[in-house]
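User: Can you help me understand a structure? I only have the sequence.
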Amino acid sequence: MSENRKAPWRMFLPFLLVVALLGAWSAYWFFAVAAAKSFAQTQRASLAAQGFTLACAKETWGGYPFRFEFTCQTPLISFPKGASVALSSFEVIAQAYDPMHAVVLADGPTTVTEANGTAHFIRHGQALASIVAALKQQPRITAEIPNASTDDGLAIAMLRIASRPADGGNIDVAVTGEKLLFTQAGKPTLTADESQLLGVFDPHTDRLAISDVHATAGGLKVSGTGNVGVDAARMPNGTLNLQTNDPQGLLALAEPYEALTPEQKQGVLAFLVVMGNKIQVTAKEGKLYIGPVSVTDLRPLF
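Assistant: Let's start by predicting it. Here is the structure, written out as tokens:
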């Protein structure tokens, strides 16, 4: 009889176990999201002291019970020299069981404002980034931006960017683009069916060593290597050693955009005759050179 009286209570054991697991999981989630908020506030304060700030018209935390979510409406990201980036919104999502892997969704349009106040309006589809953090290492990042276009005449069907830790604290970088177009009134459209850049970024020197860069546009092909960076005046600085299957065709394509003088064109043509299918492009002291010939002035990148 006593066994029969005890039997009904056993029916509640699975339920009690579920309640206990739910309580433990809820405690973990609320503790973890509180820790994430504290960490985010600490990092934002540290970055703000260096001149980097993030302002949101509205920010929320959520995702219970299986995710951590942070949403920022109309974010404005400001940089030390006065430049800024404004978006419609972005959301950071991480699974509760894998908080070191975050997915970022960013909605356009995006406005990039230079330190001098010049604004660049960028239309694009929803940008997606995957960030995998690691202790004492740079994170692994992959990102893609679809259907991007600017008021400056640049358009690209798909831009993909990836980075990962490399030896010596460096960062491996890969960038690919599909169906790139550049258009300006009264000038022929520049196109690239496919383009790619592979390199290693050294954060100690802020230099990018390019092991491979190439682009194809119809029958025209360009490839090469190089080393580039930004000088103290925020100007592009470095050299690309390129080769092409059609030097004359490449020059004819670029000439309307560079507005070469007759003397500059003769100098570039003479250089191409000597070098064959090889072209050295150098940026230094605010000027862009093809071989030894200065073809245009440069301006600060930011």
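Now, to help you interpret it: Residues 18-136 form one domain. The first strand starts at residue 53 and ends at 55. Let me know which part you'd like to focus on.
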